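Case study 2.
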Amino acid sequence: MLLLASSACSGKKAETAAAADAATPEISAPVKADADSLYALVEAQTSMGPRTPGSAAHARCRDFIRNRLKAYGADTVAVQQAPVTTFEGKTFTAFNIMGRFNPGASRRVLLLAHYDTRPWADRDADPANRHRPIDGANDGASGVAGLLEIARVAGDRLPEGLGLDLLFVDMEDSGEIADMESDSGDDSWALGTKAWAAAMPYTFDNWPRYAILLDMIGGRDARFHREYFSEQRAGQVVNRVWSIAAQSGFADRFPNSRGGAIDDDHLPLLDAGVACIDIIESANPETGSFNPTWHTMDDNLANIDRRTMQEVVQVVLNTLYSD
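Prediction:
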């Protein structure tokens, strides 16, 4: 993902078949996210090593996600394969994984996260590290852990008539930072999601009511401000989730103020007409943007905050059960 200057913020309004209502009903989620389970899911991924595209660790992570979805009761698990080309001109196969719960339900919600990791620690303070791949404990593994935890605790206890789709997208994090040599910019990010959005498995009758992207939800004491594009193009969903966060006792974790404008996996879905928001740390007080470990060798298990992940995932669960 890439933080964009607010002056560059533009884009057409996402048109949705059915957006979430602005009013928020009572919170009554019967399931609870577990901090230790989330941490263990991050640890399982980082123990594989960097999950960079084309690597053995990347393949192991794909198997891990598929196997966990099946173990947690997904009715179907499908893998979309799509050729993608990075800004360096390298071609890879993107493997997008979707687990579907209650696939026959027409009332659906989509949750997503990317599972690939950054091939280069290009923001590391030590120049010697800037061509090394990162562990991606926060940037990659935390969002995946969040989705898998939701599958574990909610998969067989969804609200009646609700269908849930969990999408694990590939090739998000091989994009070019704006100050690099090439000028391809934001077009080089979220390659897997762009491929998936071009062939979404939805019709008008089962179009997602809304979608939530979880990205970098495990930073120490992270705060999640209202991401710019989410607010501009899916404001009802942002209002709903942040209201539920406040009612859940997590107003400090979800400040009711604007964060950065992020080029991330939600943008291709917004462009495709899905009311998708991004829960991401984008106004860190130390950096003014992302967590200090972003794209550095410090993005490792030692810097993961269990409580942060647990509270974010609980807000998403409370949102699902208030649908």
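The first strand starts at residue 2 and ends at 4.
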